[in-house]
Specification:
Two copies of one chain form a homodimer. By secondary structure, chain A is α+β, with helices and mostly antiparallel strands. Chain A is built from six helices and three strands; from the N terminus they run ααβααββαα. The longest helix of chain A has 13 residues, at 40-52. The first copy, chain A, binds a DNA duplex through helix 4.
DNA sequence: GAATCACATAAGTCCATGCTTATTTGTTTC
DNA sequence: GAAACAAATAAGCATGGACTTATGTGATTC
């Protein structure tokens, strides 16, 4: 069940920080470490967890490995959340605004 | 940071099962245990975690305590997810369908 | 008010997980 | 092909978290 992997991956604050950083633009593992106090192996392990959860994908570029957000993981969360849409009727308007925003 | 509590709460499959069950309709802790192989204290502890995360709220009714989904927690996830909406342009159509659905 | 019931809390155990240091793998460069 | 560099993997450790049994608390019933 990948849903479980996703929530477990996001349960760690360091991994959410990494994910947020990647959301601002793809980069390699070394660049990701800048500004985050974390060892190289720890970063590598976190990225492996995020990748396995489908939240992030990698692409080797020479001796660097470029990481970027994988929309698949986000889509899965959105699908999970949609199951409970009955519980936020008051937010429908906000969602509509969001949609309009998406359309530009 | 309650965001952290939410993801940690949802990282446990048993708690997600409990949450899903509550989403189908509020009920007390004993009723919740039916169909889930879990001890009474374990259920109580899980509910405390969900409650602390803002995913569930309680209301004492006599010697029973009724639990139900708290929309606040879901709204927080939605807000978190919205930050990354740039990453699922292909899902806009799906969202529109969802919205239409919400309007009946 | 004693017994019973629904639930919460306490305390201890065990396993998962996030970290560390050390090493390995893959790639480039000289 | 040896050195240098980016990243992954291995192995060990320490903490967190999900469970257990035992007990406490609040409410109802007789």
């Amino acid at each position: 069940m990948i849903e479980n992997e996703i929530f477990k991956a996001l349960a760690d604050p360091t991994r959410r920080t990494i994910f947020e950083k990647l959301a601002a633009g793809g980069m390699n593992a070394s660049a990701l470490r800048e500004g985050i106090d974390i060892s190289q192996p720890a970063m590598s392990q976190h990225l492996a967890v995020l990748r396995s959860a489908g939240l992030v994908r990698e692409e080797r570029q020479g001796r660097f490995v470029n990481y970027e957000v994988d929309p698949e993981g986000l889509a899965l969360i959105a699908r999970w959340l949609a199951k409970y849409r009955a519980y936020w009727p008051a937010r429908i308007e906000a969602l509509k605004v969001l949609l309009k925003d998406m359309d530009q």
